Description:
This protein has 332 residues and is of the alpha/beta class.
Amino acid sequence: MERRTLGAAALAVGAVGLGCMPMNWAYSSSRQRGEESLRAVHRALDLGSSLLDTADMYGPFTNELLLGRVLKERRQDAFVSTKVGLLVGEQHIVANGRPGYVKRACDASLRRLQTDVIDLYQLHRADPEVPVEETWGAMAELVQAGKVRSLGLCAMGARGGRRSGTRLHDATIRQLQRVQQVFPVSAVQAELSVWSPEALETLLPWCEARDIGFLAAMPLGNGFLTGTLTPGQGFEPDDVRARHPRFTAEMMAANQPIVAGLRRIASRHGDGVTPAQVALAWVLAQGRHVVPVPGAKQERWVTENAGAEGVRLTAQDLTEIAELPRALGSWD
Length: 332
């Protein structure tokens, strides 16, 4: 697989990463199977999808434990990205950016991952009670201690909470400007997909101008852009899509033209090319510093996602995607 670099430190990763969250968190728990997920991670590494993206809150903790079983055998094949800053309670999630907590959380993640260094340590969310510079300073000390190789920031991306007249990522850019004064940012992770292209407006250009890598979260639109979901199919109560405004039966039906457009383009690229691969190829086409991180927990989806790296979209393809209808049912 083609390699791409993250940040000024030129950290090399496979062009398509693996989002590990669905293995233990946020999607239907009845379909989460540990051994199946382990095979998926091994398959990703076999194919060159070296970036494994996790977080201590996924589970919580169980996703890091699962990856640790793979890393114990194949640490040299993997680029390990995990996150800190969110605590999971019974019915709530809270931010914790206190320096002491960040350092303890890092040590705990290292133990669960069965490694002595984290390649990319990301701040999941800033703590409103702690100046972000203090949190980031503690993370920088982890780099200096040799426990972490580089630092990243997850974009805030709360659509409904932004003030009128502001752009989606204005608050994230202000955070980035602050932490850059403390220690270099190697990567920013934010949602980017055919049906959620808002990062193209300001955030991705900001990163590109500063040689900061961009990890595209949810590049398949929480599975919608794969074309495998049926309007009205319903989701289990613990599945995030059960509360997502684009996954009501009405909105899923209304957004089918987007999938139809991806399917039409896929058909021009030969047998076996899928809408999901076209959606990922579109993300890859947004810049050499962009790495999509599609979530998957089965070998077949990992294999399909990795195959997107070989799909080369034409100028006509990109124009058609740009002209697809705007997704309906957003928070805006």
